[in-house]
Amino acid sequence: MVSRTNVMVLAQQVKSELSRRGEAWQIDQQKLLGLPDIVAGEVFSSWVWRCIASGRLSKEQLRKSWKLKQSVTWADIAPSLVNFQKIANTLNDVSSKALQASAWDANSNLAHPETICLSTDIFGQRPIYRYCPDCLSEDQIPHIRKTWRLAWTYICAKHQRLMEEKCPHCHTYMDLDQAIVKAKESASISNCQTCGQDLTSCPTRDDGAKLLEPLFHAQNILGQSLKHNQALNVYQQLPLGLQGNAEEKNLTELSRILMIFRSYDGMDVQSVYAGICGPKLFAEDTERICSFFAKHRLFRNTFWFTESVVYNAYDLKTLKRAKKWLHKQIKIKLIHQDIP
User: Fold this and answer.
1) How far apart are the two ends of the chain, measured CA to CA in Å?
2) Does 33 fall in a domain?
3) pLDDT in tens, 133-145
4) Residue 303: domain span
């Protein structure tokens, strides 16, 4: 007969071996069966949406099982908000490494308060989602890529076409944060979550203004700037070679190309980082890119004001609402940074 002491010793040895392999002790862990696999390159919130749309369990059941304390869209840029290992323990074939790869590294430049606007529409109070109709059409399993959550993803490198962010029929912005609430069984990300329109039918925009080359160059440079140790070198490649003053040294180099809006209420200045400053990023290409974006109402997170007119560019009420919402999100993120 094996003694209780021997069983405990054996159990500890198994736990140690699993830990060495990067796995976890899963005995008595309730499994969630039948959930879809995560696709390589897919962003975390896209996979969660597909899990709910699979009809295997509700949003409430997922949140409870995975201890999701807030919108999964924030986990895309701040992975410390979720415990990927605990989520993996509830699944059969999805590893924690695959889940971690679906969100940006905790050391990326996306989770700073001043750079949250690069994955979030501050004034619209919604996460940024873009899509390539051709990619969705070719996907065996339609899904949202990590890079489609970024304000500077203007074109699809594979298909050399401008990205889309709204339904071509009802003109609703793609927003999986809202779609998760009403995800229906057998639904697809390739259909508008509001009206059901096939997003792959969105026509290609004519590039008569020759925008693809400067847009692709800009997003390539910015894509390299997600890691701190690359930020300075990448920043020096930007068209205007912008230099920050001593007061800006605490900001990431990436923040140099951000647009900050300010408004004076008679007592103090209200300010918020709202997106990309087009003139800083595109230099001599600014005018034609601005004209094309304005004509087609594209990419509202890229702004075209110069620093001389940015003051009071937005009314005080709009700025206060945006700042209040942003501070609320940041507070939630900070509270839940350390998850046991």
Assistant:
1) 37
2) no
3) 999 999 999 999 9
4) 212-331
- The two structure tokens encoding residue 296: 């087609």
Q: Which residues of 211-225 are buried (b: 16+ CB within 10 A; e: fewer)?
A: bbebbeebbebbeeb
- SS3 state of residue 36: coil
Q: Residue 9 burial by CB count (10 A; 0-12/13-18/19+): exposed, middle or buried?
A: exposed
- 3-class DSSP state for residue 276? strand
CA atoms of 269 and 312, how far apart (whole Å) = 10
CA distance 199 to 171: 11
For residues 122 and 107, what is the distance between their CA atoms, to the nearest angstrom?
Answer: 22
Token pair for 92: 């059969």
Indicate the residue type of 280.
K
Instruction: Give pLDDT tens digits for 52-111.
Output: 888 777 778 888 888 877 788 888 988 888 888 888 888 877 788 889 999 988 777 787
Residue 302 within a domain: yes
- The answer to whether residue 163 is domain-embedded is no
What is the domain count for the chain? 1
- With CA atoms as reference, report the closest residue to 167 among 142, 121, 200, 119: 200
Q: Which residues are within 8 A (CB) of 211 and not within 5 positions of it... i.e. 6 or more apart?
A: 154, 162, 285, 288, 289, 292
SS3 for 216-274 is HHHHHHHHHHHEHHHHHHHHCCCCCCCCCCHHHCCCCHHHHHEEEEEEECCCCEEEEEE
Q: Is residue 221 one of the residues assigned to a domain?
A: yes
pTM: 0.79
Residues in contact with 334: Cβ distance below 8 Å, sequence separation at least 6, in sequence order: none
163 within 8 A of 148, measured Cβ to Cβ? yes
Query: Are 96 and 85 contacting, i.e. CB atoms less than 8 angstroms apart?
Result: yes
HSE value, Cβ hemisphere, 13 Å, CA-based, for 15: 8
Residue 112: burial class (beta carbons within 10 Å; 0-12, 13-18, 19+): middle
Structure tokens at 25: 């002790």
**Cα gap 42→101, rounded to integer Å:** 9
